[in-house]
Design goal:
By secondary structure, the chain is an alpha/beta fold. The protein has nine helices and eleven strands.
């Protein structure tokens, strides 16, 4: 089992030093969340709360994920990076390919792209991207990303994108995994068919185990191998040795956590973040390793 540390709502000016500490205390990866803006009025329903309201306000900081990953990669050597999740159909595919590919080069290949179709129509309206059909457009974007990252001249002629041979450089040092988020039947089929993995939000452990089984079934239907497919989730229960073993048996490959977000001590300072990381590692990671 790999352990990933979420950086959502952490103080942005402390994240570079924080990344080095996350690596020091034995985490395997770091995730960065994504939103362009937070509108004053949000009529779209957030899919992961009972009342459909986001659990954060406009005061929460959302740094650009790939600027942040590039900075954190410069002070680390081992940890991987991902987004949880990058709203892919909100962006044009070439800008995304360039940003993620450059981060992969700077990090020596320690990057995975976690994507979602997005839920906030207001963001799509602001940048002039169509909200309807965003899922199908995202699937085609994944195909294009892999083409561009492979290097050399590539072209594409699809339902949403049509372009002659182009080449994007620098070329990443290897394939960049794409992990697809979402819990609907369609999202899980999409993750199993076009993704290299699935990435989720915090859920009860039984739900994550059930999701892993649904993904296994969808991978079989799509004729895709199981052993290369990564499943990264988070649970609202402690990561005890017993719980981790149950998740591993179900096919879960990574657990997301935050020593900072729900800490009972002050983590607004670098010293507070270090103390929380040390406490988390001693309590949960050390027994597993």
């Amino acid at each position: 089992m790999q352990f990933w540390h979420a950086t959502v709502f952490a103080e942005v000016d402390q994240l570079v030093e924080g990344a080095a500490m996350i690596e020091e205390f034995g985490f395997d990866g770091i995730s960065v969340s994504d939103h362009l803006v937070f509108p004053q009025t949000v009529e779209s329903k957030y899919p992961y709360t009972s009342d459909g309201r986001p659990w954060w306000s406009g005061e929460g900081e959302w740094p650009d994920p790939w600027v942040m990953v590039g900075a954190m990669a410069a002070v680390t050597n081992r940890v991987r990076f991902t987004t949880n999740v990058y709203v892919l159909p909100l962006r044009d595919v070439f800008t995304t390919a360039k940003s993620v590919g450059t981060a992969a080069v700077l990090s020596a290949g320690r990057v995975a792209l976690g994507i979602g179709a997005g839920w906030m129509r207001e963001e799509f309206d602001l940048v002039g991207q169509a909200y309807a059909g965003r899922g199908a457009r995202m699937e085609e974007q994944v195909e294009i990303l892999h083409k561009l990252w492979a290097g050399g001249m590539v072209e594409h002629h699809g339902a949403f994108h049509d372009f002659p041979p182009v080449q994007m450089s620098p070329t990443p040092p290897g394939p960049i995994p794409v992990w697809v988020g979402g819990t609907t039947d369609l999202a899980l089929r999409r993750a199993a068919s076009v993704g290299d993995g699935w990435i989720g939000v915090n859920t009860p452990m039984a739900e994550l185990i059930h999701t892993a089984e649904r993904l296994r079934i969808e991978r079989d239907k799509a004729g895709k191998p199981q052993d290369t497919f990564e499943i990264l989730g988070a649970i609202d229960e402690p990561p005890t040795v017993e719980n981790v073993r149950r998740l591993e048996d179900a096919g879960v490959t990574g657990l997301m956590a935050s020593a900072w977000l729900f800490s009972k001590t002050d983590t607004t300072t670098v010293a507070g973040k270090r103390e929380a990381l040390e406490r988390f590692a001693h309590r949960w990671l050390d027994p597993l390793r």
